[in-house]
Each structure stands twice: as structure tokens, then as C-alpha cells.
Amino acid sequence: MRPILKQIVLLFFSLSLYAQVQEEVHPPSNIKSVIFKGPTEDQFPIVQLGEPIYLEFDDILANEQDYYYKIVHCDYDWTPSQLLKSQYLNGVDNQRIIDYENSYNTLQPYSNYRLTIPNENLRLKVSGNYLIEIYNSSYELQFSRRFLVYKDLAKVGAYTKRSRDFNFLNEKQSVQFSVFPSGIQLVNPKKEVKIVILQNYHWPTARYNIPPQFTMGSELVYKYDKETSFFGGNEFLNVDTKDLRAPTAAISHIEYKDLYHTYLFTNLYRNDRPYTYFPDINGDFVIRTLQGSNVSREAEYTQVHFSLPYTEMIGLDEVFVFGKFNNYVLEEVNRMTYNETNGNLEATILLKQGFYNYKYVIQREDQTVELNTISGNFHFTENNYTVLVYYRNFGELYDSLIGIGSTNSKDITN
């Protein structure tokens, strides 16, 4: 019996490894400016099956090293699906990225890599959640990014409501919606349909697997308040470095050293200030430059200096500069340090020329992250919400993505 028991243990262990959630891996320090999008400008690709997906990134080692890509299909909760690679791919992955060029006339040399899917080697066959992984020539994982592929088989009508919870009346926003399947006969919607709601494409705050409150014919109705509510946060701060010859509104001054150094005005705490509307791109960034025509190859890199006054509210906890520019990761390069000379928290981050949204977040000693303690929470804040509808029929091996809905809180109602 011992060999059999050993095999059972090994099988259970391998299945538990197989079912691990596929988190996004952050790139090493030499890889910068990862752009990943579909046909729209949003830095998160949600595309219909067959539509193109674009990946672009820079390697500041500038030695033209080889990079390879791999595609993983996942279920709605980001555990790998049971599909074989041949069941979700036409062609083969693990191909080298052959579209790359070196930077031109820049102080910081870099190699710029570009990849489009589908391409002559690979096409996607089914809808659902996907992960793209980038490896170097030693087959070491460099970074990964999530993306979504859907078939338009369900219409989603979504809208944003002000929270009815009096404890958070002025701080939260609630997403309510209905799902209208087309050509799908639902027998048990609570089992067959799964829902995920995203605020500004930020996975750590996503709401998962919310059952329908009730059905009206084929319509699935989701009119929750607390279960589908999010803290509103505040509008993101921004900096525009497209022109390194003259400072813009947020920039105090620019210095030329080994590279360009862009010094921002010291930001203020906004948690105790009235809400002020200021257009943002919900944490995103856009690469652009006035110093060249080819943005991918001619945009400069600049050391951007951020500063924030230290207060007792921070204590011994850590503050980070936070945004899509580094995929919302808290790491040493965007951690702020205390400057005894001026009493400010400061961070210096190497960024390619462009328009960047950012804000400051706190990581407490117990590792909890407070996203809005410094910036404040307001129900007026403009946020984009995305409703993802997944479907798995009885006997199927994966969760297909059958519908996408969106709503913006600028249209919030009571």
C-alpha cells in the first residue's frame, strides 16, 4: 500500500501546484515601460476573439538579447484551466520576439521590443482569461501580464450608484447591472455564470463570483449594494514629461546631469481637503515625446523626483509611489525615504518620457496596503468599472468569457 499512498500524495501535490493562482510577475530592473493593450489606449487588453493585442517593452541593457513568449489559459479565478495548449492555441508559442530596435539619439540607451498577437505563428482559439509570460534566453521568467479574450454572447447593462451604507455614504460607489445572455440556455445561473467586477482594471480590489439576486426570464439581475461596492478614492495625480526643455504644471524644474532629472513640486495630503475634480486616466500612462517622431525609439528616459511631507500619520510605515507605470507593485525602487534636511519623503524613479498618473499609498507594518489614506475617498471620484461575465456549461473544461460591461462613475446616481 505504501507505493500507492506515495503516488496519491504526489498526485495531490502536483494538482495543488497546478491550481495555483497565476499572479502577474514584475520585471527585473533592466526592463522598463511595459505597454500592453488591445485596439484601445487602455493599458489592459480586453479584446474579442481575433482582435489584436500589442506588447511593447524596453531593455535598458541595450544588448539586443533574445526574449521569448508563452501563453497560459486560465479560469475566471486565474487558476490554470484544464485545456491542453493545442485546445486553446492555433500554432505554437515559446517563440522568439523578432521585432526589436535600439534607441536612437538618447542619453539612456535601450532596446525596444514589440509583439503582436495573433501573428503568423500563433492565434487564440477560445475565450477566457490568459497570461502572457516573457522569458530570456536562459528560459528565466522575466515578467508576465494578464489579458482577456471574449465572445460577445451576453449583453451587460451596468450603472454606478452612490452607496446606501450610511457609514460610507460619501466614500463608496456601488456597481449594479443586468446580464442578458444571447443564444445560451441557462439551467442553473448560480452555478453556470460567474461574475468579476474591476475598478480601473486593478485586480487586487476585484469582486469575484457574485451570484444573481434574481432572474426575470433570461435576464440576470445584480442590484447589490455592499457586495458590489468600492471605495471611490480620489483622482490620480499626474506628471507630463513629454518636453524635457520646459517644465509643465506639476514640474518645479529640470536639470541635465548624466540623464535628465525632473523635479516635481511637493505634493499635499488630500484626505482632509474637499474633493476637487481634475481629469485623469485612472492610474494609466501614455508614452510620448516632443523630442522625436518615433516614440518607441526616440523618447528619453528621465529621473523623476517625487516628494511628500512626512507626518505622524505615517509613523514607521512605508510609503510608495503607485501607478500603472510599474503595474501597481510595491518594491524598493518606488519606496519613499525620509530626507532629514527638508522633512520630506522622497523617491526617484526612472521613467520614459510621457504622461503618467500616480498616487501615494501606505504599507503598514502588518503588510496591509492602504490605497486611499493619503489621497482620501470620495463618492464623486471618476472611476471606470468593468463587469466580466464567465460561463461554464455542464461538462466543459474551462470558463469562457461571454460578455463585457462597463460603467463610469461620472454618471453616478443616488
Summarize the structure.
The protein is mainly beta. The chain is built from four helices and 30 strands. The chain has three domains: 128 residues, Immunoglobulin-like (Sandwich), CATH 2.60.40; 111 residues, Immunoglobulin-like; 134 residues, Sandwich (Immunoglobulin-like).
What does this structure look like?
- This protein has 414 residues and is mainly β.
- It is 7% helix and 43% strand.
- The protein is built from four helices and 30 strands.
- It has a five-stranded mixed β-sheet with strand order 2-11-10-4-6, with no helix packed on it. Strands 12, 13, 16, 17 and 18 form a five-stranded antiparallel β-sheet that branches. Strands 19, 22, 24, 27 and 28 form a five-stranded antiparallel β-sheet that branches.
- Strand 14 and strand 15 form a beta hairpin.
Secondary structure layout plus pairing:
Layout: H1 2-18, E1 31-37, E2 46-48, E3 53-59, E4 67-74, H2 85-88, E5 89-91, E6 95-96, E7 99-102, E8 111-117, E9 122-124, E10 128-136, E11 141-150, E12 154-162, E13 172-181, H3 189-192, E14 193-199, E15 202-208, E16 214-216, E17 219-222, E18 229-231, E19 237-240, E20 251-256, E21 260-264, E22 285-287, H4 295-298, E23 301-309, E24 318-322, E25 337-339, E26 344-352, E27 354-363, E28 369-370, E29 384-391, E30 400-408
Parallel strand pairs: 2-11, 21-23
Antiparallel strand pairs: 1-3, 3-8, 4-6, 4-10, 5-9, 7-8, 10-11, 12-13, 13-17, 13-18, 14-15, 14-29, 16-17, 19-27, 20-21, 22-27, 23-26, 24-27, 25-26, 27-28, 29-30
